[in-house]
Amino acid sequence: MQPLEIDHVAIAVEDIEKAVSYYQDSLGAKVVHRERIESDGVEEVLLAVAESYIQLLTPTNEGSPVAKFLAKKGEGLHHIGWRVPDCSAALKELKEKGVEVIDQKPRPGSRGTIVAFIHPKGSFGTMIELVQEMPEGH
Questions:
Q1: 35-75 tens-digit pLDDT
Q2: Spatial distance between the Cα atoms of 41 and 72, rounded to a whole number of angstroms
Q3: In degrees, to the nearest 5, what angle opens at C-alpha 12 toward C-alphas 63 and 76?
Q4: For residues 46 and 55, what is the distance between their CA atoms, to the nearest angstrom?
Q5: 104 is catalytic
Q6: Are 76 and 102 in contact (CB under 8 A)?
Q7: Which domains are delineated in the chain?
């Protein structure tokens, strides 16, 4: 598996508006995408940093994985997204190598991407998301 680059660094936050204000006012970051992802129970905001993003995540319900993360660990680094050319192939290769995965097959992600998560137990405590960008119109 050859990652192309870091797609995003995801940060779990309690108050997304406060976090957006901080990144905009203090660091000059620009919001480039905002989306509510019902299937994951989160709202996300993407802030552009060169060709990558800072992804701010906040739960939209108490049962979401991000809500559980915040309750257990508090605000902070949630996962790192690795941009890959083919999410299915990368996931298959990792599974063949014995890497513990969360998603058994890729699924739709935000902004039209295809994603799959690798369990933090096998990644030295950091969850990794494989992210495949899809061409416009797909």
A1: 999 989 999 999 999 989 999 999 999 999 999 999 999 99
A2: 17
A3: 130
A4: 5
A5: no
A6: no
A7: 5-132 (3.10.180.10)
119 classed as catalytic:
no
The Cβ of residue 35 has, within 10 Å, a number of other Cβ atoms equal to 13
Q: Cα 137 from chain centroid?
A: 22
Out of 8, 43, 78, 132, pick the active-site residue: 8
* Residue 71 identity (one-letter amino acid): A
Q: If 0-12 CB within 10 Å is exposed, 13-18 middle and 19+ buried, where does residue 81 land?
A: buried
Per the listing, tokens 């552009």 go with 48
Respond yes or no: is residue 79 known to be catalytic.
yes
Entry pTM: 0.91
